[in-house]
Amino acid sequence: MTPHEVQTREFAACRRGVDPDEVRQFRARMADELTMLNETVRLLSRENDRIKRALRDWQTMHARECPPPQKHHHNSGHW
To answer: CA distances (Å), 54 to each of 42, 43, 59, in order?
Structure first.
């Protein structure tokens, strides 16, 4: 659900309905919260992408600079 959907949602009138001002205030508050949460998700997604790129860059650099591990030579003698 988007903030716009929350703010523009209409409700059917009924005999013993709720206070329309209270509904408008609640919808505005929910829309603001959704906006903030969507922005937080967007920022965290960007940060996650940045960290993934940094890790890949580090792994690439590490693979180039570090020699592969030596193969272990087994002792041909008996103990």
So the answer is: 19, 17, 9
- pTM value is 0.61
pLDDT along the chain (79 residues), means of 10: 84 79 89 94 98 96 81 62
Provide Rg for the chain, Cα atoms.
29
CB-based contacts of 10-16 (< 8 A; 24+ apart in sequence): none
Query: In this structure, what token pair is assigned to residue 14?
Result: 């009924």
Cα atoms in the 13 Å half-sphere on the side-chain side of 59: 6
3-state SS class at 69:
coil
C-alpha to C-alpha distance for 7 and 21, rounded to whole angstroms: 13
Two structure tokens written together for 69: 């591990």
